[in-house]
Amino acid sequence: MVEFETAKVIEITSMGEGTRVCLDLIDELDPLEGVLIGNTGSGYLMAVSENRSTDTYPPRPFRINAGAYHHYVLLDEEKTDYLAEMRPGMKIPVWKDNNMRLVPIGRVKMEKRSFIRIVCQELKTNQEISVTVQEADSVHLLGADQTAKSAISLTIGDELICYPDEPGRHLGEKIIEEITEK
To answer: Which residue has the higher pLDDT, 165 or 131?
Structure first.
């Protein structure tokens, strides 16, 4: 069972343009359901569904804007895939609280967009966990207070839900190795 922790935002950096990946699932998602994403195997933040209106986007209750093409998506406690490897028909874990359900992907939507990198520090171990997400008001991460936090409204010191992990992956499988990822 995944044990969620709290991480504090310590850095937000503009990254420029890249390929973002939206996962359009074949079921309606709760506004606080999401997938666990990360730049490295050190841990993951939760990107929640686009199940809310923003200034520029209507709700998309089937969609999760999961960030940059290179991101890991946590499939279970031992396995990840890259967003680049997601395909229609794959079942991915969608989390709310400590409950998980598998939901098939109906479409993978990739487009060029501007990005920000959000670096957090897990409060118990000081481990760094980071994501690279689209710089848009439709992207929300799960806050430690169990609310959706707009990625573009985050500030240094904000607290987010995280799942810390140990780096070391080979073809998505967890392995024991000496590795440095940033």
So the answer is: 131
Q: Model confidence over 14-70: pLDDT tens digits?
A: 999 999 999 999 999 999 999 999 999 899 999 999 999 888 888 999 999 999 999
SS3 content of the chain, % helix, strand, coil (to 5): 5, 55, 40
CA distance 50 to 64: 6
What pLDDT digit, counting tens, does each position of 40-51 carry? Answer: 989 999 999 999
At position 108, the amino acid (one-letter code) is V
H-run or E-run covering 75: strand 72-76
Burial profile 56-70: b = 16 or more Cβ within 10 angstroms, e = fewer: eeeebebbbbbbbee
Rounded to an integer, what distance in angstroms lies between the CA atom of residue 12 and that of residue 150? Answer: 13
> Distance between CA atoms of 141 and 49, rounded to whole angstroms?
9
Sign of dihedral through CA atoms 161, 37, 132, 107?
negative
What's the CA gap between 139 and 46, in Å, rounded?
11
Mean pLDDT on 131-143: 96
**Number of Cβ within a 10 Å radius of residue 154:** 19
Q: Report the 3 state secondary structure along 95-124.
A: EECCEEEEEEEEEEEEEEEEEEEEEEEECC
